[in-house]
């Protein structure tokens, strides 16, 4: 266990752990007081209204999140107007970085908002944003919020198909994209992906930011350059007065089938949580330079690469490219170049830095850093120590922040001025948050017993208010396991005797690859669309850098492949490649499988259910065994005993297990 240094304790907004007791007494009152610090056009009538499974915070309150960022900022507009809001670092080393002060960002947002109005965008209309990490992405998000349009950001590395489902589900009529962006030195033609993705959707207008030098085709009646749209627009646009319960944005996250779930965030609750979690957890102060490496396409990007630092009047940084491009120390250079004081990243990045070797970073003293954060998956003790020693120089507390797309903001993390910081434990629930760990029957478990992590009423203001157009899914995914009044996180966890929570991992079919969330179901649905594939099963296996990696077991359609071809190793390789291309086409390169195995059949129950659990077990010992030599030494790993695989009696085709085992052994 580590505790805050005197320095951190002195400066922290929260230094006394009695805040937890205070908040616990009356969480509704606690959030009410916090919300009252922000600017409301009209105060709410009721702080928390619960109609399970739905609930609402600050009922009847009227706000606009952008007026809280700009003209009505709690810190005083005059005070923050001329300070930098945003620093943009391009991937190309030779390109100039850009900064925007609060006032400049305000004006850009207003012009873009007026541009959207000119195109006919109204309050509650959905606007798709498919942009790389450039200032226009932030400006677009804010412009939507200004006029009450609902933004749906789609990660720029998602494929056209992934873009299409999201645009179809939201019925967006406008899409904002760019001609391209840089990724590891290459230009990616984003406009082409956008053109493909909008086919079969209701998109009528495409706004294109010119960011790279590649030429793109513009469709006269449909496409308009960003600069042309905003050039004659006024630099003031009145904020739309939003109801606290109105939707601020929809962000998609993996669904258990091929269709992603559109999580809904409401204006009031989200704003309050974004503001206060940032302030207390990252301890934002006036001279901080905050860098969260998350892309705006994810919730971490929405909340901590945009709304939270802005509400707090902090200067934050966004970076267009890869952390290790053109050299492994690019991220370290960026920290030094701008004097970053708070750095927030994912364990997968920390493990990547560690792999490059401490030598590479020796010359950096990271003297400006004062707080480090981690998010997205459990950070194991060794990565934690490396982060603490080599980057934080044993000076900076590590905030292991647990949350989900659904929770809108961080919910579990130690507070920097209070601590304690215990490697691989995420810490205590945020003041006012009631969590519990329950067994399968819903009984609360004592410390050190692992169970299901749940959140109890009144939850938190930023918890999702629904799944877009799918109330059934909302009820089933979050409010059915333990009843309509308990939010089920799908994470397994336990707590130590001091109440610090350790997240063990997901209990559902979610795979976390480099912090990105996929379900086996969505990956399988993508692969099954391929004409040569009959069926497949996807599992996640442990991976040293990415946390987990995707492994596919696919059965090809024999009618499409002749017997002779089937035996040829060439055709097998081809089909495997097709699977990889297919998954990249449907989802994007981030979902690229580590391994594809062609198998004759999949282990199934008599009712036809694929037993992924068995595939997983088959795989794990081999992976751990590593080299042939090691495997020979360890007898239990040369043969898979039935006990190791669990009960096979429910299988309709137990013989296939051995066959798959042989394929696996051969491949290692
Ligand atoms: C899942 C949510 C919103 C953050 C980005 C990911 C896992 C997240 C931690 C952490 C252990 C974590 C959980 C959670 N997770 N943070 N600090 N320690 N696990 O959002 O893609 O919606 O994924 O990420 O399993 O349920 P997401």
User: What is the tally of beta strands?
Assistant: 30
Treating each run of at least 4 consecutive H or I residues as one helix, how many helices? 25
**N/C terminus separation:** 40 Å
Oligomer: single chain
Largest sheet: 7 strands, mixed
Structural classification: alpha/beta
Strand order of the largest sheet: 5-4-17-16-18-19-20
Mean pLDDT: 93
CATH class category label of the domain at 508-667 = Alpha Beta
Shape verdict? globular
Low-pLDDT runs: 623-641
What's the name of the CATH homologous superfamily of the domain at 508-667? ANL, C-terminal domain
Spell out which ligands are present. Answer: 5'-O-[(S)-butoxy(hydroxy)phosphoryl]adenosine
Output the radius of gyration: 25 Å
Percent helix range: 25-40%
Query: CATH architecture of the domain at 508-667, please?
Result: 2-Layer Sandwich
What does this entry look like structurally?
With 668 residues, this protein is α/β, with parallel strands linked by helices. Helix content is 34%, strand content 22%. The chain is built from 25 helices and 30 strands. It has a 7-stranded mixed sheet, with helices on both faces. The chain has a 5-stranded parallel sheet with strand order 7-6-8-11-12, sandwiched between helices. A 4-stranded antiparallel sheet has the order 21-22-24-25, with no helix packed on it. The radius of gyration is 25 Å and the shape is globular. The structure holds 5'-O-[(S)-butoxy(hydroxy)phosphoryl]adenosine. The site of 5'-O-[(S)-butoxy(hydroxy)phosphoryl]adenosine (WT7) has 20 residues, from helix 12, strand 20, strand 24 and strand 25.
